[in-house]
Amino acid sequence: MLITVPCEQCGHDNDLGRIFCARCxxxxxxxxxxxxxxxxxxxxxxxxxxxxxxxxxxGLLIVAAIGVAFWPTTIGAGPGDPxxxxxxxxxxxxxxxxxxxKGSLTRSMSxxxxxxxxxxxxxxxxxxxxxxxxxxxxxxxxxxxxTRKKKIDAKPDAAVFADLAEGQFQLQVRKSYxxxxxxxxxxxxxxxxxxxxxxxxEGVVEITRASLGHVPFPFPFKAILVSAARRxxxxxxxxxxxxxxxxxxxLEDNRVRFTLTR
Length: 262
Hints:
Strand order of the largest sheet: 4-5-8-9-10
Distance between the termini: 86 Å
Low-confidence stretches: none
């Protein structure tokens, strides 16, 4: 930290030890460097550094708060295995067939089987999207190609799974984006995760809370997340299982019980 000697003629601050002013050449008056002047200079030089440290600390705290707020939450369940979900799908097909000969059916499904089935539904949707993209990219010819016979290597664009408790549930959606290319820089993958909390009472499913990370989303943002979850989960569930007539849903610990009416 340097102490300077002010020039009495032009006001230029000269380094301590100079005899003549570096700007105008006038002889400097060392008596002008009083104890009060030294204290004033020391105070001025400390203040910017102190302010800079405070601003840096505030910035770090803001970044940390945002990171904690949007840090992915964890629920009791985890993403299921679509291979196990295939077996669950086969069982649901038999239920759909049985329903045609009966007025109503009540069945239950474990949390593990439900999440495996949801993983299977998401995989099927990804495969269908990949097949459609392949068909759209093929040149128009008179010959039709059966792309279903060809193995499609597709990955779901999101993981969807649920945690079931007595009368309530948590549905979590984890989606990855990227990498993004900005100029010559390629960003890494970044993850978006939102959680819907709700209840099921006498068959009425209601979303009571929507959050992104640990940040609750109010209306209308909550409605956007709910709509996205309905498209991803409910539509896929009904389409794959051919269930358009689920009349009652009852949530139990680690199980869901539903009633179908013809």
